[in-house]
Fold:
Amino acid sequence: MHVALASAAVPVAVPVGRAGRGSRRAAAARSRRGRVASSSSSSSSSSSTADVDDDDRTSRRVALASLPASAALLSSLLRPTSASADSGDWSSPGLARTDIEPAKYVKSPLGVVYEQINDGDGKPAEPGDVAVFQYVLRRANGYFIYGTIDCGVGCGNGDPAEYTLGPDGNLIAGLDELLTGMRPGEKRRALIPPAAGYVSKGLEPQPPEFGQKRQVEVHASEPLVFEVKLVKTRQRGGKR
Structure:
């Protein structure tokens, strides 16, 4: 006897228990993957937050450590130096002011503008006298050139200069005019115009060093600042 086979597909029955176990295993695997991914993300986030916190703490430590140095620098910038304290309103060596009176300026016939720093005593200097004086020379912008006072590098040894006043002398006209009439101990600070300054070679006073002499020569066409203190006067060939 022949049995005819149906052409339709015959469904295969799968036991319910096996299908349930497979589904549960797949779900458990997906859950484990989710937990691992979540744990990894959380760990990465915590690590990043820790790094940021460490960076913040490091930045704060660096900032706090730099405060004393910054304060010291600011203090040193604001604190006046001994040179500026000793020389009135100048930042380089000068002849100190001995009073706190407001500055009074006088303009001479030659155009020399000067400030009387303090008064002196005794007979005023006259043409023909030998003026014994200390001086500090600067450019009009305050640049220090030379000083007879003992103030360190670029200065003399404290010995005053000595020059004859009047037509028989060879001082620059502005300084000659400034010293004439001063009394021993008197101090003046003056702005001497070029026309009353080093208008020709051979005029005095001249600094001792080549570089300083060169400064005077190069800037002879500019106004120059002289601070002078008359120590005393004497007659030529004698003493006073």
